[in-house]
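Ops channel
N.P.: pipeline sanity check, posting one input/output pair.
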């Protein structure tokens, strides 16, 4: 739901931005975090241009430059997001008759450096998964980490999981992804066993206050921050160098599937990517792995 606070800027820009945010909330079902980021970006834009009806392409370019050179300057990723928000706003304003042209149409977002996902190798994942003990919270931690690695779920999907989303007998789970999209993915044997142990032997003792699968020590829904803390602690106890995030388990899930011969479009469906282009970045990881294996094993590679 859109935040109640008004958007900075004069009445023309402010009204257009608020109308666009309402549209994104009601018609597009944009995720809360994305909506908050768009609100911040467009509030800054409305203050910069003041009157949406008189904006030119030069004004939009000047705004983008102000983001790059501000104090502090925005990263390329944050600037690209802001450009996307501004372009969406102008398309909306033109369609709704709030202005007569689209000055942002030809303004490109900054080029983003191609960053490959950081996947963990299988032995590292197994070290992490072996750490949690048989205490109630240890059973929860193992179930959470096995679930993340065994399904490729986003952390928001995992902490948002309800008991009714799980069908352990069939080995499947319904995940509620970005933009209100849902998908059904298989739950492997290790994750099923860890979930069953947690749900039977630990979760009732945490006195659940609702339908959430993963609970904190007080019986409430585990938060994203709580899940990050669990993995950070477990990884440190496993002797894994450097920070490890829940997203690293999702990256590892995808990379290990592709290493094992899975089709990229199957992995796309499992991950819930809207476009196969997003999934294809993982194929670069596996190509690097193939080069490494080739270089260390083929007699004429060196």
């Amino acid at each position: 739901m859109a935040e109640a606070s008004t958007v900075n800027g004069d009445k023309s820009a402010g009204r257009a931005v608020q109308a666009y945010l309402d549209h994104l909330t009601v018609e597009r079902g944009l995720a809360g975090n994305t909506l908050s980021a768009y609100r911040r970006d467009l509030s800054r834009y409305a203050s910069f241009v003041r009157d949406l009806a008189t904006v030119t392409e030069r004004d939009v370019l000047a705004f983008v430059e102000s983001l790059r050179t501000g104090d502090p300057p925005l990263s390329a990723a944050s600037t690209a997001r802001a450009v996307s928000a501004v372009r969406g706003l102008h398309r909306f304003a033109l369609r709704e008759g709030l202005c007569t042209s689209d000055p942002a149409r030809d303004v490109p977002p900054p080029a983003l450096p191609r960053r490959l996902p950081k996947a963990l190798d299988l032995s590292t994942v197994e070290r992490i998964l072996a750490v949690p003990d048989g205490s109630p919270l240890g059973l929860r931690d193992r179930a959470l980490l096995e679930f993340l690695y065994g399904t490729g779920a986003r952390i928001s999907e995992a902490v948002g999981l309800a008991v009714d989303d799980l069908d352990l007998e069939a080995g499947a789970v319904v995940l509620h992804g970005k933009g209100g999209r849902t998908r059904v993915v298989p739950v492997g044997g290790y994750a099923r066993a860890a979930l069953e142990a947690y749900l039977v032997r630990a979760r009732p003792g945490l006195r659940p206050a609702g339908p959430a699968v993963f609970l904190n020590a007080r019986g409430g829904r585990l938060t994203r921050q709580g899940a990050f803390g669990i993995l950070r602690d477990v990884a440190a106890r496993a002797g894994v160098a450097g920070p490890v995030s829940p997203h690293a388990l999702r990256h590892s899930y995808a990379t290990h599937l592709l290493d094992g011969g899975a089709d990229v479009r199957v992995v796309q469906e499992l991950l819930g990517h809207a476009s196969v282009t997003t999934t294809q970045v993982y194929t670069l990881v596996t190509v690097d792995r193939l080069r490494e294996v080739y270089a260390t094993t083929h007699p004429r590679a060196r």
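N.P.: looks fine end to end. The chain is about 55% helix and 5% strand.
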